[in-house]
Amino acid sequence: MDRTALAEFLVRRRQSLLPADVGLPAGARRRTQGLRREEVAFLAAMSTDYYTRLEQQRGPQPSTQLLGSLARALRLSPDERDYLFRVAGHDAPDRAVSTPYVAPALMRVLDRLTDTPALILSALGETLVQNDPARALLGDRTSYQGFERSEIYRWFASPDHERRMYPEHDRERAGRAQVATLRAAYGSMGPQSQAGALVAELLRISPEFVELWDRQEVARRFEDHKILIHPEVGELELDCQALFTEDQSQALLVLTAAPRSDSEQKLKLLAVVGTQRFSNA
What we know:
Helices cover 44% and strands 12% of the residues.
């Protein structure tokens, strides 16, 4: 681990960003060039003290998960992300492997989507980051660990929980789409990858997945029109648009409702109350 190189790189990258670059308000007059340390720590979901010690060439070696979060917070390019890993004493991650890193181009778009639900997914259906409207609509999908980080895994391992937002008549289609998406990831990442491990685990635990996997359907698809059932506001009819990175490894999903529709009003209501239960609001 090259502490000096790591510290100098973090300082320079932090100073090169403005709050508007990462979706933060500028706030009062700033004495610090670029972002503040506490702002980077907030974006990377880590303590300000730990981040400060990295810039001061102190503290323990950061984990690969933490480095992925820092790369996302600092809007690093793939080459910059690889450099960050190497000076921190780790091998650069395989670019075909799912990590907490988010493509900067998708993050810039997400930063500007403040009033409509939007989230960024990996090829394995892991929610890498979501905005506040998406959290209000779908719940927090970024806190899962292990296989459960993948919504594909949760669809088959925890069907009572994961499928409750989908109308019963749409669940068969949604399940087939999940499996087709996983097969596309499996084809690009290979059997020895995270996709391969996820397939092996689902084949072990879910007869339903086995049946759908045998269909050999392959597609990266998201239904253009969705009907979701929120526990508080009920049914919403939403349009879904997907923006993919060039290598198809990540997708930004944006959910919108038709103007002046009941669903649009429900989204506005959710934006006001956030993730609170209406009974407690």
